Amino acid sequence: MTERPRSAISTSTSDRITVRGLDLTTDLMGKVGLGDMAFLELLGRLPNSGESVVFNAMLVSLVEHGLTPNTLAARLTYLGSPEALQASVAAGVLGLGTVFVGSIEGAARMLQEALAEEGAGDDLQRLAGVIVEEHLSSRRSIPGLGHPIHRPVDPRARRLFELASENGLAGSYVELIELIQAEAELRTRRTLPLNVTGAVGALASELQLPWTICRGVGIMARCIGIVAHLQEEMRDPIAAEVWRAGERES
Predict the structure, then answer these.
(1) What is the full DSSP assignment across the chain?
(2) What pLDDT, on the 0 to 100 scale, is given for residue 121?
(3) For residues 51-68, average pLDDT
(4) Residue 20 sits in which domain range?
(5) Are residues 38 and 131 in the same domain?
(6) Is residue 225 part of a domain?
(7) Are residues 113 and 197 located together in one domain of the fold?
(8) What angle do CA 164, 199, 127 make, to 5 degrees?
(9) Looking at per-residue confidence, does 232 or 99 come out higher?
(10) Contact 196, 158 (CB under 8 A)
(11) 56: in domain
(12) How confident is the model at residue 232, as a pLDDT?
């Protein structure tokens, strides 16, 4: 008989649920916060105290970004489909690409691939110069750098790196992206602040999250913000006015 498909993440019996080997009701519920639960799901273990502080701060920094395209998409979808909250949340999530939130993935990939080879971290200054040159010569933006509002410093990135330093998580990935930022400003003669997604990409790398899943960190956090925007849309709607404004301009 073919064995039925199973997941290594969770098991259930008539009276017990386990997640990554821990009992959901006795080991986790009432003892573990949402951020630590997310860490457990992704990494297979609960975080230590320093990892918990940093990972939770990463999630908190990404929850709310105001009336960005993805929250507007969620609100407009709710206007047309108020009976299906999940459809509106999904519409908002679908807007999380390389410009918004998805740049976490780009920053993490850049850093992880750069430091993947043995000895690559021996001269981080040189490595930063190579990375910047590769992006500038091919006219590609450097993921994790630049912000239209937060200049010359993104306060979220600064605070995340302060917490990482305080908790022993400011390693080679953090150092490399800071060197990349400095080198990029020097070569372009432009203000290119390290933004929150760049900081999260570096810290996700410090926590050994593969770059292929790093966008998911932003998606998890932003879902909370999307639901809050939909609650506000129910109470104080603006989507209809956004729609009418578009009609007037067309």
Answers:
(1) -PPPP--SSEEE-SS-EEETTEEIIIIITTTS-HHHHHHHHHHSS---HHHHHHHHHHHHHHH---S-HHHHHHHHHHHH-TT-HHHHHHHHHHT-STTTTTHHHHHHHHHHHHT-STTGGGGHHHHHHHHHHHHHHTT---TTB--SSS-S--HHHHHHHHHHHHTT---HHHHHHHHHHHHHHHHHTS---B-HHHHHHHHHHHTT--HHHHHHHHHHHHHHHHHHHHHHHHHS--HHHHHHHHHHH-
(2) 83
(3) 96
(4) 1-47
(5) no
(6) no
(7) yes
(8) 100
(9) 232
(10) no
(11) no
(12) 97
| Residue in the block written with tokens 């993947």 | 116
Closest by CA position to 169, among listed 218, 217, 202: 202
pLDDT above 80 (res 177): yes
- CATH number (domain holding residue 189): 1.10.230.10
- Least Cα distance to 221 among 14, 22, 29, 34 occurs for 34
Q: What number is the average pLDDT over the span 115-143? A: 93
Q: How many CB atoms lie within 10 A of CB 49?
A: 8
**Preceding amide of 47 cis, omega within 30:** no
Domains: count for the chain: 2
- Is the Cβ–Cβ distance between 143 and 201 less than 8 Å? yes
pTM comes to 0.94
Environment class of 27 (CB within 10 Å of its CB; exposed 0-12, middle 13-18, buried 19+): middle
- Of residues 150, 180, 174, the one with CA closest to residue 162: 174
Q: Residue 215: is it exposed, middle or buried by C-beta count within 10 angstroms (0-12/13-18/19+)?
A: buried
Distance CA 26, CA 35 (A): 18
177 with 111: CB under 8 angstroms? yes
**Amino acid at position 84, single letter:** A
